[in-house]
Design goal:
mainly beta, Porin, 16-stranded antiparallel beta barrel, 57% strand, disordered N terminus, Gram_neg_porin_domain
C-alpha cells in the first residue's frame, strides 16, 4: 500500500493568514522472490530476486506558479538474504532532487538513463527482470561493458505530453573509466497513439569508442501486443555490434503470456559471432493489483555462454508491490 503524508497548509499566528506550501511524501516498494535455476550463471542461486526488491521514498512540494520541487530516493536489496545489492551504494536505485513544471522536469543525482527508459526496457516483455531478462540484448551488455541502466552524478531533463515523451541526460566522467574516458550521455524518446507505440534511444557511455543506438515499436491487436527491437553500435574496441528482439504479450485469463526471441552479434568478425541467442516464454497471474505470481523458461546460447553452466533457466516466483 502507498502511505501518503500530506500536511495541511498551516496558518502561522505571527504571520496572520500566511500559509506554507503543500507537500506530499509517498513510501513505496517491492519484494520479489522466486525459486529458480539460472542459465549461464556460475553461481546459480535456487532462491533469488526475480526483479530488484526495493524500498523508496518520493515527494513533491508545490512552490506556486506551476513550479514544484521533487525528490526520490530508492534502496535496492536482496530479499533472499536481506543484504543490499550494491556494496558501497545504499540508494542504488535512485537518488535525485529537482524541479518540474509544465515545461518539463530537471533532476540531479543518480537517475535512470533515457535510452533505457524510452526504448531498451520497454522493448523487453519481461522488463529486463526474472531469469528471462533480455538485458544483454536490448542494452548490448554482453558487448558494451560500461553501458549502464542508470548513471550517478547526472543531470537529466524529461518531458511528456499528448503521447510524446523524451529525455536527455549527461553525467560526470567515471573516475575508474581510464584515460580514454569522457562524459556519458543518453537521449531517448517515445510516441504512443492508440495501439501503436514507437521508441528510440542513443547512449554514449564513458569509453571514447563505444555507443549504442536503438529503435523499438509495438502494436496492440487486442488478442496480443506484438513488438520488435533493433540495436546498433560499437564496443570499446571499435567493433560493430548489432542485436534484434521480437516479442509478444497476450492476455489470457487473469494474467498474460509473454514470449521473446533475440540475438546479439559482433559484426566485426570474419564470420558473424553470435554473442547471445535466447528464447523465453512466461506467464504472469495477477492475484491482485499489487501481487503477481509468475513462471518463466529461458533457453540461452551463444559464445557468451560460460562452459559448464546451464543452458536452460526457469523460475516460479511471487512479486508484491506496495
Amino acid at each position: 500500500m502507498n502511505f501518503r503524508l500530506v500536511p495541511l497548509s498551516l496558518a502561522l499566528a505571527s504571520l496572520g493568514s500566511a500559509a506554507m506550501a503543500q507537500s506530499s511524501v509517498t513510501v513505496y516498494g517491492r519484494v520479489d522472490l522466486s525459486v529458480a535455476q539460472q542459465a549461464n550463471k556460475v553461481a546459480n542461486k535456487e532462491v533469488r530476486n526475480g526483479s530488484g526488491s526495493r524500498l523508496g521514498f518520493r515527494g513533491v512540494e508545490d512552490l506556486g506558479g506551476g513550479l514544484q520541487a521533487v525528490f526520490q530516493i530508492e534502496h535496492r536489496f536482496n530479499a533472499d538474504e536481506g543484504t543490499q545489492t550494491a556494496a558501497t551504494r545504499f540508494w542504488d536505485g535512485k537518488a535525485i532532487v529537482g524541479l518540474q513544471s509544465a515545461y518539463g522536469r530537471v533532476v540531479l543525482g543518480r537517475e535512470e538513463n533515457p535510452a533505457y527508459t524510452y526504448s531498451q526496457n520497454v522493448a523487453d516483455p519481461f522488463g529486463t527482470d526474472t531469469v528471462a531478462s533480455n538485458a544483454l540484448i536490448v542494452q548490448g551488455k554482453a558487448a558494451i561493458a560500461d553501458i549502464s541502466t542508470r548513471y550517478s552524478n547526472s543531470v537529466t531533463y524529461s518531458y511528456a505530453a499528448n503521447g510524446l515523451a523524451f529525455g536527455a541526460q549527461i553525467a560526470e566522467t567515471d573516475a575508474n573509466a581510464g584515460s580514454g574516458a569522457k562524459r556519458p550521455y543518453s537521449l531517448g524518446g517515445s510516441y504512443t497513439t492508440g495501439p501503436l507505440s514507437v521508441g528510440v534511444g542513443f547512449e554514449n557511455p564513458s569509453n571514447t569508442k563505444d555507443r549504442w543506438a536503438t529503435v523499438n515499436g509495438s502494436y496492440d491487436f487486442g488478442i496480443a501486443k506484438v513488438g520488435a527491437f533493433f540495436g546498433d553500435g560499437k564496443n570499446a574496441a571499435d567493433q560493430k555490434i548489432q542485436s534484434f528482439l521480437v516479442s509478444a504479450v497476450a492476455p489470457v485469463g487473469n494474467g498474460a503470456f509473454r514470449g521473446s526471441y533475440g540475438e546479439l552479434k559482433n559484426k566485426a568478425t570474419a564470420v558473424d559471432a553470435t554473442l547471445v541467442k535466447q528464447a523465453a516464454v512466461g506467464y504472469q497471474y495477477f492475484l491482485s493489483k499489487r501481487t503477481t505470481v509468475y513462471a518463466d523458461v529461458l533457453e540461452f546460447g551463444g559464445t557468451q555462454r560460460v562452459a559448464g553452466t546451464k543452458k536452460v533457466g526457469y523460475d516460479l516466483g511471487l512479486k508484491h508491490n506496495f
